[in-house]
Design a protein that fits this description.
255 residues; alpha+beta; L-fuculose-1-phosphate Aldolase; eight-stranded mixed beta sheet
Amino acid sequence: MADDTERAGGLAAWSPRAVPGPGVTLTRAQELAVALRHLDDVGWCENLTGHITVQQGEHFLVNPWGLWWGEVRASDLLTIDVDGAVVQGEWDVTPAVHIHTELHRRRADAAVVVHNHPPYASTLAAVGELPDLVHQNSSILADELVLVSDYDGEVDQPTLGADLAERIGDASVALLVSHGVIVTAPTIELAVYKSVLFERTCMLHWLVRAMDRAPIPIAPTHQKQLKASLIERAAPVYWHGVVRTLVRDEPEVLE
C-alpha cells in the first residue's frame, strides 16, 4: 500500500546546489516575446489567435493583433492601460483583451494572463469536461481548475470580461466551454510552465480515456508535495531552458 504520510515538497525537501541559468538578462518585453514563441513552438496556439498580458507597473504588455506568436519580437509588443487602450506601440490590440484586463483588475496574483486555444484543451472544452490529473506533473494544477460553462461568444467588452472574471474566481486555470483556456500566474516562468503542463494534462486525459481504463488516483498528500516541487524547483529551470534555446535558435526574438 502506498504511504499517504504527508511529506514536504519543493525547496523545503531538496534544494539544488546550483542550476543552469538562462545565460542572458532579459527585459520584460523580451521575456514576453520568448514566452509567446515558446508556447507557439509547443503547439499552445491557433495561428494568429490568442494573447498574453504581463503587468509592467500601472500598464501591461501584450502581443499585437495580426502577428502570429511565432514571429513576435520584443519591439512588436504593445503597452496598454488597465482598460485595454494602447498607450505605446505601432499596432492595435484585439478587443478580446478584456478577457485579461478584468482579471488583472480583480486578481493581485494575476500579473500574467495567458489565453489561447491549444488542441487538447479545446477538445475537452468542446464537451465541457475538465481533465483528470492522471500524471504526477499534473499535480501543479491540483485545486486550480475551473470549468466556465456559459458561453458568451467573443469577449469584446469590459462588461463581458468582468462577468468572465467573476466566474473564474480564484482559479489559476479556466477551461472555457466551446472556446479555449485561460492561465493566470504571478510570474512569466510559472505562467508558461503551467500552460504547458495543462495542455499535456489534457492530452494524457484523452489518451487514458481512449484506453477505456480508469486512471489510478494520486493521493492528495502526494499531489501537495509534488505541486510544491513543480512550482518551486521545476518552473524556474524550465523557463531557463526556454530562454537558452530560444535565444540560441531565434536570437531575433530579443530585438
